[in-house]
Structure formats: C-alpha cells, structure tokens
Amino acid sequence: xPGKVRKTSGNKLTAMMIVHNEADRYLKDVLEHLTAFVDQxxxxxxxxxxxxxxxxxxxQKVILCRNEESxxxxxxxxxxxxxxxxxxxxxPDWILTVDADEIxxxxxxxxxxxxxxxxxxxxxxxxxxxxxxxxxxxxxxxxWNPWPRFSLLLAxxxxxxxxxxxxxxxxxxxxxxxxxxxxxxxxxxxxRVKHYGWARGEEHKEKYRAYKAADPEGKYSSREHLESVxxxxxxxxxxxxxxxxxxxx
Amino acid sequence: xxxxxxxGILTTNYYNPDGNRIIYGGAERYGLELTKLLLELEYEVAxxxxxxxxxxEMLPGVPxxxxxxxxxxxxxxxxxxxxxxxxxxxxxxxxxxxxFLAYPQVLxxxxxxxxGIFWDYPSFDAVIPTEELRRERLRxxxxxxxxxxxxxxxxxxxxxxxxxxxxxxxxxxxYIPNFVDLNLFSPSEQERKDGKIRVLFPRRLTSVxxxxxxxxxxxxxxxxxxxxxxxFVGRAHDDNLEKEMVRWSAKHPNIYYYWKAPQDMPHVYxxxxxxxxxxxxxxxxxxxxxxxxxxxxxxxxxxxxxxxxLIIDDYNGLLIRPTAANLTAAxxxxxxxxxxxxxxxxxxxxxAANFGLEKWKRSWAKVIGEVFx
Lengths: 249, 373
Hints:
Chain A is of the alpha/beta class.
C-alpha cells in the first residue's frame, strides 16, 4: 500500500458524481450541500436531455463533462472509469463518491476535515438510508436495512495506482478494484446518508423496468432485492427518520 | 532496511469475525500503538484473529489474517491457538494479545498481555458453574500464564490476583500501565462560557462499562437541571443497540449520542467538564480514563480492575461503587461545585503526566528487547 500521499493537513476533497436528467429531482439540494464542504465537484453528465448540465454549471466548484450518448444502462463500468479519469485530473487527495440523490447529515460539514486530515485510515464508510415513497420514512426489510450495512463513500486517492474496473455492464460499483475485496483500512462513521432515490413512489415501476432490462437474468445484482421494489405494501417495513442533534462543538 | 525479525500477534477480535465491523475499544487502540512501536523498533508485524478466512490490513503494510476457528471453552481458545501456532511458522516472535490465547502452547520467544481481570462480572459464575469446571479453567490459565516468557499487565490488580493464586508467577509479570498521548490530549485553554455543564460517557456501550447506570443518571439529571448536557460517545456491540441509542437520545433534548474518529476525541474532551468511567467489571487502566485525565476533566470512576491505579478518591477524581444512584449523586456533586471540578481536573492532568505514551513505549521496548533476541 503506497504511503507517501498520506498527510494530516491540507487535504483536498473532490466529490464525483454521474448525473442523468436530474433537473427536477434533488440535484440542486445535493450541489448546495456538497458546496459547503468539498473543494471540487467533478460531474459526468450521462447525456441528459433536461437542464441538468446548466444547473451543474451554475455552481462554482463544479467541473463538468458531458457525454453525447448515455452509457449507464449500456456499460456502467466504462462510465465509471471515465468519471474516475476526470476526477484524477482534478488531483484530489480524497474522493467522495455520491449520487445526485444522496445527502449527508449536517454533521458532515463540521467533521469531514477531521475524517480526511489523518494518516490512520484511507476510507470512510457510512450507513445509507433508502427513503421509501416519502422523505420521512426509510425502508428496513431484507437488504434494505441500513443498520448493519456500511458503504464506502469517502476514500483517499493514490495517484500512483493503476486502477482497474470489473468488466460489468451494470452494477459495476462506484470504486475501482483496488478499493474492494481485501480493501483499504477504513473507518465506519455514524454520520448517516439520506438516499432519496426511492422517495418518489411514482418512479418505482419505471426504475424497476429499467434495472430489469439492464440485468434480465439477475447476473449483476440480487434478483430478490430487485423484485422487492414491487413488493406488496404490507410486506414493506419502514422506520421513521429521526433527526439526531448535531453535537454543539 | 532489514527487519529485526517478524512478530506475529494473535488476538480474538480486531474486527468482528465476519470482517465487516471494526471493534473500537481501548484494547484495539492499544494494538495499534503496539504495532506502531514494533514498526519503529524495525520489526515486521502480522496479526491473526478469529474470522472466516478473510485478510485485511490493520495498518499500511501490516496484514491481519483471520483464522476460521470460533470454538472456545473454559474461556480459552485452544484451536485458535493451535492454528496460529501452525500458521505463524514463519514468524520469529509472538505476542498473545490476550493472556488466555497463550493456552495451550506458545512460540518460544513470546509475550502475552493482560488488559485486566475479565472474569469479575456477576454472570461469570453461570459461565463456569461447577467446581470441577473452575478447576479446569484455572489449570488452563496456569498453563497460559506459564507459556510466554513475560506477561505485560496493564494494571496491578491482575498481578496481585495471579501472584496470590500462584506465588511463583511473580517474576513473569511486568506492570506497564496504559498510556495517553499528552500532546494530543490536553486541557482547553479557554474556559467555556455557555453556562452548560457537559458530562461525557466515552466508552463502548456495554453493560460492563456501566452504560445502563450512566443512561439512568442522564435521564434523572437532565429532567432535573436544564443546564446539564450528556454526551454518549462510542459504539455498541451491535447495530440494534446503536439504533436504540439514536432513538433514545432523540427523545431527550440534552442527551446526545454519536461517535467520532479517534483523532477527533481530544476536541470532545476539551469541550466537556465531567467524564464518566463507571465500569462494573473487566477493566484495566482505561485509556478513556487517562485521556479524560490528560484533558483536565473531572473524572468519576469506580474501584474496579486497574482504575484505582489511576484515580485516588477526592484527589484527582471520584471513586464510587457504580450504581445509578451513586453515579447520579457524584455527577450532581461535581456539576454544582466548580472549585471541586477544577481541583480534581488539575490533579488529574498532573497524574496523567506519569502515564505518557513515550514512557509506555520505553517500558515496552525494554521488555521486547529482553524477550525478542
């Protein structure tokens, strides 16, 4: 594991994100939110046909690149690799990978510097809460349960590594292989992430169809989990989101 | 640079056995500092623990291997010990991170560590319920104590128990109390003027650490006083308890629950007045207690394990029997006696100076030099 890039101060944090037709969803909230605590936001627009690129470009910290043809459901790994190259060109010390519908608790703004300006760990994992048909309740049955599940969203960037991606057209993951498997040394944070990707019930059927079409045989993700998107309401377990007080110091 | 040799360290859990959840306790932080020291002393280091066969790094360049042996009996893990013995064939020296892991066999040049008496909790009697079983447990402990060349004990309580039970063992023990980085943990230079009295419970949320008593005291006192604020800072052993803590703290305006990266803890201590270390059992010389002392906080703790090695009652902290009522009374006494808090905090800082990280490293380096040659 390379060590010379670790430093306890002055680390530059770059967020990276793939967007596609996000203008009427949560994009502005996410960009406002990120602007408060990251140094740069590298965005790869996957051929949006709405105002997404214009919205992105209106934020000072954004570095935007646009694709003419959408790749997400054709070969996601290629798209991820492309975003990775753009991010690398911005020369970050740390990378935050987010989607255009994910928002950290406010504590992140106060604590992110402490999470990155240290040499003891190279990644930070967070619990992600999938809001379900509302912005007040999240889903907890089956694989949706956020409590036992931590996801790597923040990690140190090592410029000398030759990064590779799995040869997967769909569900290729946000991180290159170096960050997976044996993995990097990571810290599990209690700062929660709100995921609004499923907050609009009217989008569920369309999203289900798109995911099923991209992976009809359940090759890249759990079929059971995908089917649970359309599960009868009485089998879906929800918990109410409870705001946690931000420590006063 | 050629390493002086390879040190294999066997522990039970640095991560949970499934490899997904890091344990953030004092013993794990001890493990990190010990590893850093060994690297400074130019040894190569590798760790082993219980697990499903996964492999990780615990520090850059320091592998952590897992051994798929989960069985334990009489509070020993002979299969884990055996697998380590076979797998560690390429190591020159061994450290058994917990004393009982040194049963039944050890590498020739080895050290074990006692982090404190761990069999002083009330339900222990039910774990080893008959005289015959207790005899077998003692027999195994005797073998585990005898195997390594040295046993580093973080407190005097363990040494006293062992040498009272088996007087011949006294030469095995080295008392090296736990440490605090005095540069990182120091009192705040500014006195807070927000009118709040902040009470901190900086421990893992387990019964033996007194979480239930501390939570009860917090409920009673926040109901009684508006200017008292409680901060529970630490992880639980399972996700459900963490969820419950989130819900519980949300119901009480002056009770907070969160955890922080270790690097952020000095800042937490600098912003609180009173620190609770109300351990009921399985305690050594608590790192949290030392950190609170170094930060000049007024500490309320218990006469359990090695805590009296750190705190003299009414001199540099308060020593209590950790019931909810006693804890509530002690917090109340300190919360409304500024002078007492200040005096205990100042003395705590002075005493903490004797437990600095550098001194701990020198003591450990001496033992390592004697055994690993």
